[in-house]
Design brief:
The structure holds two protein chains of two kinds. By secondary structure, chain A is α+β, with helices and mostly antiparallel strands. Helix content of chain A is 18%, strand content 33%. Chain B is α/β, with parallel strands linked by helices. In chain B, strands 1-7-6-5-4-2-3 form a seven-stranded mixed beta sheet, with helices on both faces. A four-stranded antiparallel beta sheet of chain B has the order 10-11-13-12, covered by helices on one side. In chain B, strands 8-9 form a two-stranded antiparallel sheet. Classes of the chains: A alpha+beta, B alpha/beta.
Chain lengths: 131, 486
Amino acid sequence: MSNLPADLKYTKSHEWVRDEGDGTVTVGITDHAQEMLGDLVFVELPEVGDSVDAGGECGVVESVKAASDIFCPVSGEVVEVNGELADAPETVNQDAFGEGWLFKVKLSDPAEMAGLLDNAGYEAVLAEEEH
Amino acid sequence: MLIFEHSRPGRRATAQAPLQREETPAIPDAMRRKRPPRLPEVSEMQAVRHYTRLSQQNFSIDTHFYPLGSCTMKYNPRGSNALAMLPGFLARHPLAPESHSQGVMACLYDLQEILKEVTGMQAVSLTPAAGAQGEFAGVAMIRAYHDSRGDTARSEILVPDAAHGTNPASAVMCGYKVREIPTDADGDVDLDALEEALGPQTAGIMLTNPSTLGVFERRIAEIAQRVHAAGGLLYYDGANLNAILGKVRPGDMGFDVIHMNLHKTFSTPHGGGGPGAGPVGVSERLEPFLPVPLVAYDGDEYHWVTEKARPQSIGRLSAFGGNVGVLLRAYVYARMLGREGMSRVADYSTLNANYLLKRLTDAGFEAAYPNRRATHEFIITLRREAKELGVNTMDFAKRLLDYGMHAPTTYFPLLVPECLLIEPTETEDPETLDAFVEAMVRIREEAERTPDKVKTAPHSLPVRRLDDVRAARELDLAWQPSAAEG
């Protein structure tokens, strides 16, 4: 099982969320997600200023195998996107929890964070999928 | 090697050279090109050898077993081609008057009737020029139906997660939002999730039955009842019609609209991406919206039915009556089979699939839905091989090419990890199916003993393993002369 950082929150749809402590969060896809997708060839991100809803589609990651929607884990306004990914989508494969982050959101409802999974909860999701 | 790379200045193929130079004085000087186009300069023999070699490098149904799941790569009978290419058909002009086109119109009318009968629908239009356009037409009719009733608040199309990717795409093209419905562990639609998703916003549901999981949706009658109760319509994706041809009819299951892939079920060529044909069939309430033209018969003569008689039609989808050459091939195929032959298609396509599934599982491969009988196709998962041997589905697929077989569909549907979706079709004999099992077993043995041989396959084809990641990231499709050639 991959090592899941304990300071992140997770979704069943394989996104991760890091609370930056200033009312914003950083969002990415998990290492498991990038592994399942295989080599990424394209990442479509929301635009800065977009308002996003928790559970709504807000981007696409495309690999040689499949294109998969990114679901926004939280609601709010997009304040920054990882522009490096346009030319180097493979960064997500190489460092899903770090340099391969996707975008940052200014939370409109910080209480939503409590509804996300912790690393043990996400590990249980992965174990169930394995089964 | 490209034909351009064979080129040498001044080399000619007289057989292909124009007999005389055309004078085109009407084109103003400013619009004339300054330099001649860069065309390959090759001899007649070089051209013949080049294209013959390319055709020999092809994998096709005419040369190889081609069990590409959900694509129904069955044999395309030569008889269909021969009859569709009779001089009377080839020489016909689409603008010829009806009185000069009675023969071809009779064939098209009969094909409409045959497709109605075999799908249980009220009416059929042949004009959509491909399966994807048939899907678009189907969803456009759902939209037109709701709009005609002033029922404009319906904004969602439900699509099971096992669906073909074209389904959500067609729904979005018609302005709908897509809501995904999960599948349960046995491959049926999750009814609780369906119930939760249904509401006054539901325009319809798009289903493939049998699904792309290779299993028949057992609760289709209940699904139809619930969707209709919510005011939605049912769309049948005809991708897997082969499994039920002449056995069960989508119209009887409660579907309101269906598209058919003639290149799958009715054995017209898949060739080169087209031309295709994706006729649509509808229940009574959608009939006014069918795309035109249709062919009608008054007991004496055949007539084109156009917008004049069908003001509510979603309109025209192609020039004239669709890809008539393709439709004629399907017509000949259907007539050759007859009613009993059609149900034999279902018999043998499911028999072949179940035989192959049984033999593969007996050989130790893992079925994705072990509790279900296969329809005309089935899924095995190589997750165990991937985990224990480090040889994944793509490696197996590439190695199969070395064994002279086209790979089954890989990594689709997305629900099943490391999957192969295998559809042998009814036109393969038991020896071919046995050879496929043998190839799979041998590849697994190779994976145990010499995994690199499998991971670097193919070895015997004109090109080795392609770097599909680099190809997608650095898309480069146009030939450019090298700098030296200027």
